UniProtKB/TrEMBL annotation:
Record InterPro entries: ACT-like_dom_sf, ACT_dom, Chor_mutase/pphenate_deHydtase, Chorismate_II_sf, CM_dom_sf, CM_II_prokaryot, CM_P_1, Preph_deHydtase
Domain ACT: 303-380
Stored PROSITE patterns: ACT (PS51671), CHORISMATE_MUT_2 (PS51168), PREPHENATE_DEHYDR_1 (PS00857), PREPHENATE_DEHYDR_2 (PS00858), PREPHENATE_DEHYDR_3 (PS51171)
Designated name of the protein: Bifunctional chorismate mutase/prephenate dehydratase
Domain Prephenate dehydratase: 109-289
Highest classification ranks of the organism: Bacteria, Pseudomonadati, Pseudomonadota, Gammaproteobacteria, Vibrionales
């Protein structure tokens, strides 16, 4: 039997020391990333340099393997996170320079669906924590109320879910965008980790009633199909569902929500991983009364809505313009135009800065081909694509 070199207490002390060193180094690296952003202000270089990132990651993988016996996947996963943080930090710095009036406002009023602990609330906290902005939280009962509070000036921003990887597009929000005067100024994608929460450690077979928002009901439909006889009841949000279960305080009711949010209401998780898809994410948009200026040095997205003539090939003709100018379309959604039977409004997400020359040329051509076209917003792309690298 191999003699142990250190006692458990000594090992833990050593690990604590190493963890402190890692935190110090990560902090120093962050400061240097900010210096990189400042240098790019002078050179006008874009935030992301795919070739440089790839070379860096390959070097780190090789050094990790040969010098420190570290697994390539481990290194890749770790540095994807570090690179993502660096990119977002640099983007935030450049955006503050492009929008000085916003950087001088460390406090913002933000409206979202549901009470504290709802997924919209969690998305709001995550998005504005990246901006070092403190929040005055305004919870709303309906998506329309979120938009109305911003339009009326009672809130500076509204956070709305727009699509989910499991249940698809959230049509109510798309229909809302068709009539609002607001602009999209940001986005964030949040991992959705659905679980069953209840007031105590009850057995699943004892549940008679399950509360949640209709979206989680759809996203967990396969799990719910295995609960015969359970009555599904809809609430305005997952937070409202958890509040309801807490108030009822019964051992035969539960809610679908987030485990950490459940703790806010004194609930415990009794079953996790209940979504249809393991990788379950919701994309949220941030809306405001005025558009935001986007630095040309950072990756941007532009969202527009348009309606085409009611004749064969009209939509395809418009989309071919985007192809000709090399503009990548990441989303195309159609919704009926209220009051105009059989007519559709198309929502389009594009990976391009609104003020880019090729984008302006494309919009000029598309405008001539459509009956109606409106830009809903140009905003920083917060979803940092992982650096591509070939692992052996």
């Amino acid at each position: 039997m191999t003699e142990q070199k250190y006692s458990l207490d000594e090992i833990r002390l050593r690990l604590n020391h190493l963890d402190d060193q890692l935190l110090k180094l990560l902090s120093e690296r962050r400061k240097m990333s900010l210096e990189v952003a400042k240098s790019k202000v002078q050179t006008s270089k874009p935030v992301r340099d795919a070739e440089r990132e790839q070379q860096l990651l390959v070097k780190l993988i090789n050094n990790g393997q040969t010098k420190y016996d570290l697994d390539p996947q481990y290194i890749t996963k770790l540095f994807h996170t570090i690179i993502e943080d660096s990119v977002l930090l640099q983007q935030a710095h450049l955006q503050n320079l492009a929008n000085p009036e916003l950087s001088r406002k460390p406090l913002a009023r933000v409206s979202f669906l549901g009470a504290k602990g709802s997924y919209s609330h969690l998305a709001s906290l995550e998005y504005f924590s990246r901006k070092n902005t403190e929040l005055i939280e305004l919870n709303c009962e309906r998506f329309k109320d979120v938009a109305t509070t911003v339009e009326s000036g009672h809130a500076d921003y509204g956070v709305l879910p727009i699509e989910n990887t499991s249940s698809g597009s959230i049509n109510e929000v798309y229909d809302l965008l068709q009539h609002t005067t607001l602009y999209i100024v940001g986005e964030i994608t949040l991992p959705i980790e659905h679980c069953l929460v209840a007031t105590s450690e009850i057995h699943i077979e004892d549940i008679t009633t399950l509360y949640s928002h209709p979206q989680p009901h759809q996203q967990c439909s396969e799990f719910l199909s295995r609960l015969p006889g359970v009555e599904l009841k809809s609430c305005a949000s997952t937070a409202d569902a958890m509040q309801k279960v807490k108030q009822m305080n019964r051992n035969d009711v539960a809610a679908i929500g987030n485990a950490s949010s459940g703790k806010l209401y004194g609930l415990q998780s009794i079953q996790g991983n209940i979504a249809n898809q393991t990788e379950n994410h919701t994309r949220f948009i941030v809306v405001a009364r005025k558009p935001v200026e986007v630095s040309t040095q950072i990756p941007a997205k532009t969202t527009l809505i348009m309606s085409t003539a009611q004749q064969a090939g009209s939509l395809v003709e418009s989309l071919l313009v985007l192809q000709r100018y090399g503009i990548n379309m990441t989303k195309l959604e159609s919704r009926p135009i209220m009051g105009n039977p059989w007519e559709e409004m198309f929502y389009v997400d594009l990976e391009s800065h609104l003020n880019a020359e090729h984008m302006q040329q494309a919009l000029s051509e598309i405008t001539k081909l459509t009956k109606h076209l409106k830009v809903l917003g140009c905003y920083p792309s917060e979803n940092v694509k992982p650096t591509a690298v070939q692992l052996n």
